Amino acid sequence: MLPLTPTGLLRSALAMGGDREAVVDGALRFTYEALERAVQQAAELLAAAGIGAGDRVAHLGRSSASHAILLFATARLGAMYVALDPWMRPAMLNTLIEKAAPKAIVLGHTLRGRPFTNDLTSSSWRLPDSLLCIDAARGAWAQAMSPAGPPVPQHALTDDSGPRTPHLILFTSGTTGEPRGVVYDQEAFAGQALVINLGLALSPTDRFLNVYPPGHFGSLMPVLQTVAAGACLVQSAVPAPEKVSEAIRSERITVLVAVPSLWRRVLEQPTSTREMLSSLRLANIASDSISTRLIEQVMDRTGALSIQGYGLTEAGLVTLLPTADARRRIGSAGLALPFAAVQIRCRDGALAQPMEEGEVWVKTEYGMAGLWDGHRVIAPERGQDGFFRTGDLGWLDAEHYLTIGGREEDLLKISGYRISASAIEDVLRDHPACADAAVIGLPSEKGGQSVVAIVVPRQAHALRATELMSWVGQALQPQAVPARFAVAGEIPRTDGTGKIRRKNLIDRFLGGEFPPLAG
Asked: Which CATH fold would you assign to the domain 20-147+157-238?
């Protein structure tokens, strides 16, 4: 019986047929046999460089076949894969590298297609002298990372790691504070892939387009999901909306999961016709606040189903909406997945009643093993019952379907009411002349907070403050209507995943960077 590990999943896929397509990275096309050969060769090269069980190996490069190969190669050695995001600025990458303390870093290509080794001479980088830098864009590594790589040596390594071996360090986004290094063991990450595949009904005929940055859970999980199903992963190096539309058409993509901001830009493309997107069967939206209007637009344009779920870096995906409920329960995050449970708790810790909003608490068998403190894995904080708090608000209905209402910290306190900033943003984005919006709360002279909306007008459209006030007032309670509006060229968001940087937004607004909206 094959173990529930990344290696076990890959060998299971090989048994289904090694000549099937496994990974597509631009012009590079890997069958499962070629992927196994590349993984084994990468493991040999890492071992020759002194990497063994327990060592950390970081990877810095855009989404590619390399980050899929390294995910399996490190597992085979019992080493830990440190996921880094090339969208990040050097200062943040320096911090994460310092936290992870890797023994080696494998350098791929930048977002512009240059080898990352060309950029390391910049004074912005502070890499430790002891860090082994491996250039995967050239030489033996580049050859190993190609579909036509050298044959696996006769003395090829065997998988000596166990299911509970720590394997992955994945950093949280940092939108709510300093990024934390979340650790998954091999069994938890592989098990999570199988559980999600049950919900998505992923099969060998599926082709999954990955548009997430490689340091994100949404980029790493599809690597294991597609292998677990014997399906094909198509990597998008730079997810520009026109490239995403073209990839769906040319690669006959069946599954796409993307953040709301990318979906909006894809739908705005003149080439994103129903015919061009017709191969999709699942067009899911994730990682940020999602309006029901956007879900409807995605399903109407693509003809595919769009099912939402709820998850977080520390727990993985916890709930998922069944496909049969895609239109009947639009906007719901669905039911708890196998081996997971959800509770809604009131401020006093008591369990909430059906339809009563409270904080979401979750428990899952395939979540994180712990947090990385720079030297070791430390146990996460959980209650005696195994549940841990998420900081998100939501409610369960009588049939246990979850609806997410936003984050506790994103709630605005207006005239005694608690109002979700994301709910106001969703309404503003639905206005035909508003391309994007963000809402912040500033101290009010009357006590509590005053609602301020920063909006991005669409080209060739005029926006007036009174018009937007009326628009919000028709959709939400009077207290949700912004008292002030300002104009921005773009909303500051996290690199790659598109989450609003609210602190940055507040600082820039108070600094007078955004002019007021007239009218």
From this structure: Rossmann fold (3.40.50)
Query: What are the structure tokens assigned to 313, written together?
Result: 């870096």
Which stretches of 305-421 are assigned E, i.e. beta strand?
309-312, 316-320, 335-336, 340-345, 358-364, 370-372, 377-378, 388-396, 402-407, 411-414, 417-420
pLDDT tens for residues 280-339?
999 999 987 788 889 999 999 999 999 999 998 889 999 999 999 999 999 899 999 999
Helices and strands, number each (H, E), in the chain: 13, 26
DSSP assignments along 248-264, one per residue? HHHHT--EEEE-HHHHH
> Given pLDDT bands bounded at 50, 70 and 90, which one contains residue 231?
very high
What fold characterizes domain 317-407? Answer: Luciferase; domain 3 (2.30.38)
Report pLDDT digits (tens) over 53-78: 999 999 999 889 998 999 999 999 99
> Residue 483: pLDDT above 80?
yes
Q: What is the pTM of this model?
A: 0.86
| Distance set, CA 83 to CA 52, 62, 67, 93, 334 (Å) | 18, 11, 9, 11, 29
What is the predicted pLDDT for the residue at 288? 77
Q: What are phi and psi of 58, to 5 degrees?
A: -90, 155
Instruction: Parse the chain into domains and list their residue ranges.
Output: 20-147+157-238, 317-407, 415-510
How many angstroms separate the CA atoms of 472 and 490, rounded?
Answer: 21
Task: Find the DSSP H helices in 167-283.
Answer: 186-200, 217-229, 241-251, 260-268
Model confidence at 129, pLDDT cuts 50, 70, 90, reads confident
The distance between the two most distant Cα atoms of the chain, rounded to a whole number of Å, is: 76
DSSP 8-state code for residue 22: E
For helices 292-302 and 260-268, angle between their N-to-C axes, nearest 10 degrees: 40
Start-to-end CA distance of the chain, whole Å, equals 69
For residue 279 the two structure tokens come to: 């191969």
Which amino acid type is present at position 41? Q
Question: Which helix (H) or strand (E) covers residue 423, if one does?
Answer: helix 421-429
Position 495 pLDDT exceeds 80: no
In angstroms, the CA 154 to CA 157 distance is: 9
Q: For residue 477, what are the contacts with CB-CB under 8 A and spacing of at least 6? A: 417, 419
Class of domain 415-510: alpha beta
Nearest to 310 by CA among 342, 352, 267, 276: 342
Tell me the pLDDT tens digit for each residue of 99-112: 999 999 999 888 77
Q: CB of 227 within 8 A of CB of 30? A: no
* Residue for token pair 């580049």: 142
